[in-house]
């Protein structure tokens, strides 16, 4: 994706005025703006775009839009994205994952909250389809071999089972999650904190192209936007919102991954964490979240589906592997456990070995024989296999 912007800008296209208005407003706000989104829903994007240019807005929106009100690169932005094989997706489009973003209604008053105003997307499949069954997998950039291995196992198994893996395309756990999904022919979404025409980190340029072919690269920021710390924090809320649940594999106590987990909790998404070595700084965040009840402990894809997957009604309880001897209790169990794996023992020996008085040993042995657990031979009692 990086390095393709110049070529893309040389291919002008005649765009629909309504789409141009959406692109203009998306650059003006660059992120969530619930107030502006409500204006657009009530009046349409073209009317609101005219109001923004004229400064004819409610007072609370003037400061939000004034700095970029005269910057109109809508046509070139749409040209750039079209040249990449992408598009601008708005709440008016069928592929807008509206039900995913409903949770933002309860957190709009928090700083940086709110559903995205619009999304720039590279990828052929509809966004709503990709996010129908999705799990966010995030973690530290300084991943250990343990973290990358566990990430690969979980993400790969989820992708094989038809889940979309959502992450942020960073080095470490994010990259491992994306690669694992792609490696098994699955789908994955990369949510960027910059324009989708920029490969960030640059070392993941090839990976991002692969993600775009098999899934989607998504950003709420228009082409050419540089990454910034506050944009990474805002990006994390989208990773959480697009997922049925978020798995943190490795994370320090203060980290972007824990910020994603915090957004997941705010949006009502289950949070899961993979436990790590108590000596590893990269696992302190996961271990502490598990200990303090902020995250469910998971070790495999099955655990993740159990926590984040749909609730299923079952006709009967799942079968649990058990031993025949699980039915034995009390003195009877002690007497049985006192028998050797091979060979025999007399009642006196069994009493000494089990600590059960000899009269209760004599009472227990016929019961064990009746149930087929033991037999009596010439030299004593023995276990039946």
From TrEMBL:
Organism placement in taxonomy: Bacteria, Bacillati, Actinomycetota, Actinomycetes, Mycobacteriales
Biological process (GO), any one: DNA-mediated transformation
Ranges where the Smf/DprA SLOG domain occurs: 88-306
Source taxon at top rank: Bacteria
Family that this chain belongs to: Belongs to the DprA/Smf family.
Name under which the protein is recorded: DNA processing protein
Listed Gene3D superfamilies: 3.40.50.450
